[in-house]
């Protein structure tokens, strides 16, 4: 079983009050953001640092919210084929996280 990080590089635990206002529709919950990107919510949480997303955290219930503009930028990067470049900019190369297989002697 893999341990996922509790906090990310760009966690914001003191966001401005407009972040939590649903009428503005400026932030998305992980399920909504993952649906836009075409992945599962768990994958989105796992690759938050690799994608360079800002996570707004609610101190009361520790809920995560993602900025809608950042999610749309990631979606455009995926459509244009710039996702690998974006991951490399955030320090995640092609070999990052891959396991190498050893041969039996």
Q: How would you describe the overall organization of this protein?
A:
Helix content is 36%, strand content 10%. It has 105 residues and is an alpha+beta fold. The protein has a domain at 25-89: Orthogonal Bundle (Multidrug-efflux Transporter Regulator, Chain: A, Domain 2), CATH 1.10.1660.10. A hairpin with a 6-residue loop joins strand 3 (55-57) and strand 4. The chain is globular. The two termini are 28 Å apart. The mean pLDDT is 84.
Key attributes of the depicted protein:
single chain, 105 residues, alpha+beta, Multidrug-efflux Transporter Regulator, Chain: A, Domain 2, 5 helices, 4 strands
In short:
This protein is of the alpha+beta class. The protein has helices at residues 30-37, 41-46, 48-51, 68-80, 83-89, and strands at residues 11-12, 27-28, 55-57, 64-67. Helix content is 36%, strand content 10%.
Show the helix and strand layout.
Elements: E1 11-12, E2 27-28, H1 30-37, H2 41-46, H3 48-51, E3 55-57, E4 64-67, H4 68-80, H5 83-89
Parallel strand pairs: 1-3
Antiparallel strand pairs: 2-4, 3-4
Total of helices: 5
The N- to C-terminal Cα distance equals: 28 Å
Average pLDDT metric: 84
Tell me the series of helices and strands, N- to C-terminal: EEHHHEEHH
Helix content: 25-40%
Structural class: alpha+beta
Gross CATH architecture of the domain at 25-89? Orthogonal Bundle
Classified by CATH, the class of the domain at 25-89 is Mainly Alpha
Describe the global form: globular
What would the CATH topology of the domain at 25-89 be?
Multidrug-efflux Transporter Regulator, Chain: A, Domain 2
Order of the strands making up the biggest sheet: 1-3-4-2
Strand content: 5-15%
Counting DSSP E segments of at least 2 residues, the number of strands comes to 4
C-alpha-based Rg, rounded: 16 Å
Biggest sheet record = 4 strands, mixed
Low-confidence stretches: none
The assembly state of the depicted protein chains is single chain
